[in-house]
Specification:
heterodimer; A: Cytochrome-c3 Hydrogenase, chain B; 16 strands; about 20% strand; B: alpha/beta; Rossmann fold; 5-stranded parallel β-sheet; two-stranded antiparallel sheet; 6 helices; elongated; binds iron/sulfur cluster
Chain lengths: ~475, ~180
C-alpha cells in the first residue's frame, strides 16, 4: 500500500511552501516535491506604474533582503536612464550602493547563521525542539546570541545610513544614489563604541568561520554526507573572475568545474536562461537554454559563488577560501551543508569590503547621479544573499512600466532544493514505518541550507513549523505528527 | 504572575514587519523576559494549545489559507494586532486588486520573456490540489475578523513595535506621535 507524506515547512496555515513525499508499496520514495504555494502577480500589477517607483515597490516582495531587490531594480533603471550597465555611475554612486549591498549581505548572513543555522549545530538535528530555536540559543548561549544580534544590528545600521531606512529604504535611484555618507556617519562605523565598530565585526566574522570549521572537524561524516548531489553552479563574477556581489558577468560551471557560460553580459540573460512552469508550484524552474530543463538546471547562492569565483579580493576571506577550495581539491563542492561554510566566508568578506569602503574618500563626494539617453529596456543583476537575482523592465513612451520579469534567487534554486529534499527523503524515509521529529527536522535542514527567500522567511527566524501526515492509498490518514 | 503569551504570524506579507520586530536588537532579550512566545515563526510551536493574550498579524489575506489562519488567530488570541501596512490595508500585494487574477497568472506563467518557448503552446498555469485557492483580491485583516489594534508603517519602526508591546503588557497608554502615523 503506497503512502503519502506531507511536510509543511511553513505550516499549511502560514503557507509559503510545503513538501509532499509519496512512498510506493515497498516503502520507497516514489516522488517528492517542494511546492511554493504563494502567488503575488507582481509582473502584472507593476505594469502602468512610473518606472522610478520600481526600486521602492519591488523590495516589498521580501523584507529579509529588500536591499537586493531595491538595487537590482535600480541597476535595471540605470540602463533605462542611459547611465550604463553598472559601471557607468559616479564613484560615490557606485560605492554607496556597494556599501548598502555589502551591509545587507552582512546582516542577512549573520541572521542566517546565528538565528537559523546555529540552533541545529548547538543542539543537534535531534535536539529537543522546545529549545532548538533562536530563543533557546538566547537562553543557553547568551554570548553567541548577543553576537548575532549585534552583527545584524551593525549591518542594518549600514543600510540605514545608505538607504535612509533599515527596511524598505529609498537610497538607490535611477542613475545613482540620493545621499552620500557623512564623516560623522563614517566615523561611527569605523570607531563606534564596542562592539559596534567594523574591526569588532571582522573579528566576530572570523570567529564564526572558525566556529564552523571546529564543528566540521568534529562532525565530518554528518556535514559531508548530508544531501550531496552533482549540480551546475551559476553566479556573477567580476570580469577578472573575482567574487563580486554587486556587479559582474554571468559565469556557470558544470559539476566538474568546466565552464558552461563565461563572461556573459547579463543584458542578454534571456538568451541563455529559460524557465519551465510546472502545475504543482507557483515557482518556475530556470535552466540554461542550451542544455534544456533536464540537464540545464543549476544552483545559486554562497556555495555556487565559492565554486564559480577564482578568488576573493580581500585577504582574510581569501585565506579561508583557499582552505575551503583545498577541501575538495579545487573541484566544485556539492555538499549542501557546506553552504553554511561558504556563507560564513562571505560574511567575513563582506565585513572586509565594508571596512575598505568606509575608508574610501569617494563616499563623501557630491556628484550622486548620472544622466544619459533614455532607453526602452534594461536588465539589472546582482548577487543577493541567497544567489543571483534578475530584474528586467521595459517602459513605454509615457515612462510607465510595460513589462517586468523577475527571477529571484530562490527560484534559481527551485530544482536543486527539490533534489535536496528528494535526496534526504530517500535517505531517511525509505522503508521506515515511524516518523520521528528528528527525521522531519532533517528535511527542514536541507531546505534551510538554501535559506530560500519565498517559503522562507519563516525559518529565517528559527525553526520552521512542520506538519507531517501519512495517508494510505485511499487518502485515509494513518499517522500525523505536529511540532 | 504568569507572563503574557504572544503569538505571531505572517500572512500575505514580506516578513519585513517581523524583521522590524527583530530590529529592537538587544531589547529582544528583555522581550523574552517580558512575554512568553507561543505559536510563531520564531519558535517550534505549530498549533495553538492554549489561549494567547496577544496575537500579532503581519500581512493581509491573499489566499484561502491566510483566511484560515487569521480566523484561527482570532479564536485563540484575546487581543489581535494588525502590524504594518499589509495587514492594515493590504499593502503592496493589494496592487493586484484592480486586475483580474487571470491576467496576473497569465503574465507570470505564459507571457514572460524567459518562459519556456516550447511549452508556451501547452499554456501551463500552476493548478494543483496542493496549492491553496487564490482570493479574488487581497483583503486587509479587519475585513475578515475583528482587529483590536493597528500599528502603522511599512514596516512599523522597531521602536514603535517595542513601545506598543511594552504599553500593552504593562497596561500603560501609548501615545503615538503624529509623525509616526504614516504608512512608510
Ligand atoms: S507592511 Fe511592509 S514590511 Fe510589513 S509585510 Fe507589508 S510590505 Fe512587508
Amino acid at each position: 500500500m503506497g503512502r503519502k507524506i506531507t511536510i509543511e515547512p511553513v505550516t499549511r496555515v502560514e503557507g509559503h511552501g510545503k513538501v509532499t513525499i509519496q512512498l510506493d508499496d515497498a516503502g520507497n520514495v516514489a516522488q517528492s516535491r517542494l511546492h511554493i504555494v504563494e502567488f503575488r502577480g507582481f509582473e502584472r500589477f507593476v505594469q502602468g506604474r512610473p518606472y522610478w517607483e520600481a526600486p521602492v515597490l519591488v523590495q516589498r516582495l521580501c523584507g529579509i533582503c529588500p536591499v537586493s531587490h531595491h538595487l537590482a531594480a535600480a541597476k535595471a533603471l540605470d540602463v533605462i536612464v542611459g547611465a550604463g550597465t553598472g559601471d557607468g555611475l559616479t564613484p560615490v554612486g557606485e560605492k554607496m550602493r556597494r556599501l548598502m549591498h555589502y551591509g545587507q549581505m552582512f546582516q542577512s548572513h549573520a541572521l542566517h547563521f546565528f538565528h537559523l543555522a546555529s540552533p541545529d549545530l548547538l543542539f543537534g538535528a535531534d535536539g529537543d525542539p522546545a529549545i532548538r530555536n533562536v530563543i533557546g540559543v538566547a537562553l543557553e548561549h547568551k554570548d553567541l546570541a548577543v553576537q548575532g544580534v549585534m552583527m545584524r544590528k551593525f549591518g542594518q545600521e549600514i543600510i540605514r545610513a545608505t538607504a535612509g531606512k533599515k527596511i524598505h529604504g529609498t537610497g538607490g535611484i535611477p542613475g545613482g544614489i540620493n545621499k552620500n555618507l557623512s564623516i560623522a556617519e563614517r566615523d561611527e562605523f569605523l570607531k563606534g563604541a564596542d562592539p559596534l565598530n567594523i574591526d569588532k565585526m571582522i573579528e566576530w566574522s572570523q570567529a564564526a568561520v572558525d566556529f564552523f570549521k571546529g564543528y566540521h572537524a568534529q562532525n565530518k561524516d554528518y556535514i559531508d554526507n548530508f544531501s550531496v548531489f552533482p549540480s551546475s553552479h551559476l553566479s556573477l563574477v567580476r570580469k577578472d573572475g573575482a567574487m563580486d556581489f554587486y556587479h559582474g558577468v554571468i559565469r556557470c560551471i558544470d559539476a566538474d568545474g568546466n565552464k558552461l557560460l563565461d563572461d556573459i553580459d547579463y543584458q542578454d540573460y534571456y538568451k541563455h536562461i529559460g524557465e519551465e512552469v510546472k502545475s504543482w508550484s507557483y515557482m518556475k524552474f530556470p535552466y540554461l537554454r542550451k542544455l534544456g530543463m533536464e540537464n540545464g538546471w543549476y544552483t545559486v547562492g554562497p556555495l555556487a559563488r565559492c565554486n564559480t569565483a577564482d578568488f576573493i579580493p580581500t585577504p582574510l576571506a581569501q585565506k579561508e577560501f583557499e582552505i575551503f577550495k583545498a577541501y575538495t581539491k579545487g573541484k566544485p563542492n556539492h555538499m549542501s551543508m557546506h553552504m553554511h561554510w561558504a556563507r560564513l566566508i562571505e560574511l567575513l568578506h563582506s565585513a572586509e569590503v565594508i571596512k575598505d569602503l568606509l575608508n574610501d574618500p569617494d563616499l563623501q563626494k557630491d556628484n550622486l547621479v548620472v544622466k544619459g539617453t533614455k532607453q526602452k529596456e534594461g536588465v539589472g543583476l546582482l548577487e543577493a544573499p541567497r544567489g543571483t537575482l534578475f530584474h528586467h523592465y521595459r517602459i513605454n513612451d509615457n515612462d510607465q512600466i510595460e513589462m517586468a520579469n523577475l527571477i529571484v534567487s530562490t527560484t534559481n534554486n527551485n530544482e536543486p532544493m527539490n533534489r535536496g529534499v528528494n535526496f534526504v527523503a530517500k535517505d531517511i524515509f525509505t522503508g521506515k514505518k515511524e516518523i520521528t521529529e528528528g527525521m522531519m527536522n532533517r528535511v527542514e535542514m536541507v531546505i534551510r541550507a538554501y535559506d530560500p527567500c519565498l517559503s522562507c522567511a519563516t525559518h529565517a527566524l528559527g525553526q520552521m513549523p512542520l506538519e507531517l501526515t501519512l495517508v494510505d492509498s485511499n487518502g485515509k490518514t494513518i499517522d500525523q505528527i505536529r511540532k | 504572575m504568569s507572563k503574557p503569551v504572544v503569538a505571531t504570524t505572517s500572512l500575505a506579507g514580506c516578513f519585513g514587519c517581523h524583521m522590524s520586530l527583530l530590529d529592537i536588537d538587544d531589547r529582544i532579550l528583555q522581550l523574552i523576559d517580558l512575554v512568553e512566545f507561543h505559536k510563531s515563526p520564531v519558535d517550534d510551536i505549530k498549533t495553538f494549545s492554549k489561549m494567547c493574550d496577544i496575537g500579532i498579524i503581519e500581512g493581509g489575506c491573499c489566499n484561502s489559507e491566510n483566511v484560515h489562519v487569521l480566523q484561527d488567530f482570532r479564536k485563540n488570541c484575546k487581543i489581535l494586532i494588525s502590524l504594518g501596512e499589509c495587514a492594515i490595508m493590504g499593502g503592496l500585494p493589494a496592487m493586484r486588486n484592480g486586475i483580474p487574477v487571470k491576467e496576473c497568472l497569465e503574465e507570470g506563467y505564459l507571457d514572460g520573456p524567459t518562459v519556456d518557448e516550447n511549452k508556451k503552446g501547452a499554456r501551463i498555469i500552476p493548478n494543483d490540489e496542493e496549492l491553496p485557492m487564490i482570493l479574488d483580491k487581497v483583503y486587509p485583516c479587519h475585513e475578515i475578523v475583528k482587529v483590536d489594534y493597528y500599528i502603522p508603517g511599512c514596516p512599523p519602526r522597531a521602536d514603535l513595535i517595542w513601545e506598543a508591546l511594552v504599553a500593552l503588557v504593562t497596561g500603560n497608554e501609548l501615545k503615538i506621535p503624529y509623525e509616526v502615523l504614516k504608512f512608510d
